[in-house]
UniProtKB/TrEMBL annotation:
<keyword id="KW-0966">Cell projection</keyword>
<keyword id="KW-0809">Transit peptide</keyword>
<keyword id="KW-0276">Fatty acid metabolism</keyword>
<keyword id="KW-1003">Cell membrane</keyword>
<dbReference type="GO" id="GO:0016787">
    <property type="term" value="F:hydrolase activity"/>
</dbReference>
<keyword id="KW-0963">Cytoplasm</keyword>
<dbReference type="GO" id="GO:0005737">
    <property type="term" value="C:cytoplasm"/>
</dbReference>
<dbReference type="GO" id="GO:0006631">
    <property type="term" value="P:fatty acid metabolic process"/>
</dbReference>
<protein>
    <recommendedName>
        <fullName>Acyl-coenzyme A thioesterase THEM4</fullName>
        <ecNumber>3.1.2.2</ecNumber>
    </recommendedName>
</protein>
<dbReference type="GO" id="GO:0016020">
    <property type="term" value="C:membrane"/>
</dbReference>
<keyword id="KW-0053">Apoptosis</keyword>
<dbReference type="InterPro" id="IPR052365">
    <property type="entry name" value="THEM4/THEM5_acyl-CoA_thioest"/>
</dbReference>
<dbReference type="InterPro" id="IPR006683">
    <property type="entry name" value="Thioestr_dom"/>
</dbReference>
<dbReference type="InterPro" id="IPR029069">
    <property type="entry name" value="HotDog_dom_sf"/>
</dbReference>
<keyword id="KW-0443">Lipid metabolism</keyword>
<feature type="domain" description="Thioesterase">
    <location>
        <begin position="58"/>
        <end position="142"/>
    </location>
</feature>
<comment type="similarity">
    <text>Belongs to the THEM4/THEM5 thioesterase family.</text>
</comment>
Length: 163
């Protein structure tokens, strides 16, 4: 796999109040800090899980692949609606925020530890408030998992009520 770094990620511009997700929140010091950006018309997230995310020695725990798929989905949908709204990362506009409505993962091959994983997404609009991301996760050049994530624009039920 070519060396790839996500230079501009949608998670970098989420407002602080929404930057705490365990998977992709930049402000969650214990989290994975997943970052998702464009690679031409596809979305990409790169992640090398820590050694502790072991299933069988030498191979990854499947739940961590699901986590990658999950946040790759929310980030991809946010990128796509942001672009549809006429914005790109860095133009100062606040991006839309999505939550996961469903997550389907197929584990195709044993996934080795200690190599960078690359999630590649194809984003499709179902409705302006509902998007689908078909994702593939590669370890080096091997397709190890694929899945589909459905995302919905974050409803007001997620707004924190301090009262
Ligand atoms: C925010 C920063 C990044 C954070 C990343 C976090 C990643 C996560 O882990 S999120 C946490 C896990 N996910 C959750 O907790 C979600 C919990 N579930 C829920 O809140 C709800 O079930 C939710 C929001 C997913 C779906 O709600 P539901 O009311 O069933 O929505 P749904 O019927 O699918 O429609 C969605 C919207 O599209 C609209 N819509 C209209 N036409 C259509 C259509 N043809 N098809 C689909 N939707 C349509 C619906 O009317 C609705 O809009 P509105 O709310 O204005 O009526």
């Amino acid at each position: 796999m070519e060396k790839f770094i996500v230079e501009k990620a949608i998670q970098d511009i989420y407002p602080d109040d929404f930057a705490w997700c365990y998977g992709c929140g930049r402000l969650n010091k214990d989290g994975h800090h997943l970052r998702t950006g464009w690679e031409e018309e596809k979305t990409v997230t790169i992640f090398t899980p820590d050694s502790k995310y072991m299933g069988i020695p030498g191979f990854l725990y499947g739940g961590i692949l699901a986590s990658l798929m999950d946040c790759h989905g929310t980030g991809s949908a946010s990128l796509a609606l942001h672009r549809k709204n006429g914005h790109e990362i860095g133009d100062g506009a606040e991006p839309p925020r999505f939550v996961t409505a469903s997550l389907n993962v197929e584990f195709l091959k044993p996934t080795p530890q200690h190599v960078p994983l690359k999630a590649v997404g194809t984003v499709e609009e179902i409705h302006p408030k509902k998007w689908k991301v078909d994702a593939e996760i590669y370890a080096e050049d091997t397709l190890c998992a694929k899945g589909t994530v459905v995302l919905v624009v974050m409803p007001s039920t997620f707004l924190k009520n301090d009262g």
